Amino acid sequence: MIKTQELTKVYGDLHAIDNLTLELDEGDLFGYIGPNGSGKTTTMRILATLLQPTWGEAYVCGHSIYTDPKKIRRLIGYMPDFFGVYDDMKVIEYLEFFAAAYRIKGAARRKICSEVLDLVDLGYKRDAFVTSLSRGMTQRLGLARVLLHDPQVLLLDEPASGLDPRARIEIRGLLKELRKMGKTIMVSSHILPELADICNKVGIIERGKLYISAEVSDVMKQVRQRPVLLIRVKEDPEPAAKLLEQSKLLEKVEIRDGVIHASVAEGVDDYSPLPTELIRAGHQLTLFKEEEINLETAFMTLTKGITA
User: Fold this and answer.
1) What is the reported pTM?
2) What residue ranges define each of the domains in the chain, with the CATH number in brackets?
3) Is 55 helix (H, G, I), strand (E, B) or coil?
């Protein structure tokens, strides 16, 4: 659905994006992760045919950004990080105005406007003025607007930016629902936990360079090829840590805030004897599990060029 080949945008000596190559399949929910100024917005504006690259190629739904920009615009819904609204309009008037721009007429226009309002849970605000909406409601209204023409691809630039925790949860739930409807979604964010539990693929970008683009599980494997065990005992952890240091199954053992962090040695696939050894030595286990890797850890590791 989306494919780029060595896509590059240069401003003087600055490479906003540098030889960007990625591919998204139909139904993907792709989290585009990077700090502010990393190239996320530039990428989306190029895919939305609003900005010409310096060189490279990009295809959306099989259409080139160079030869078929009008076709691409009919197939995508692009929501920038900041967008204007017409203050003197009611919510339903705002949507009907854009539906008319998409040449949706009469009863069909009224029907689709009501449907997208219900989808984003704004039906009860249909007769409210746009200026009366909260930031979260305005974001949902913007999302309703880009759904009016039933696009196949959604490009959402920082849709949860500036929202309170409840509004962020609502946006995440809405993105999950849109994916169930078969939409291909590219969503950018610099707040990593926002994307951790909703995306099946992620791309990590910094200073215009795409460090990785893969399934979430593959990203985690690349970040840490060997697990780290988190172990807590009821008593003083020092004796348990000393016992673990003697094990050939472990490479490094240290205590942080009362929890033992034990790195599994290279080539070890089975560390199941460890809890038995601790219990036999008289230690009472209250925690024994692998440390979880999140997208924040992945970003901090990969952007330093460290893969293990």
Assistant:
1) 0.78
2) 2-221 (3.40.50.300), 225-292 (3.30.70.100)
3) strand
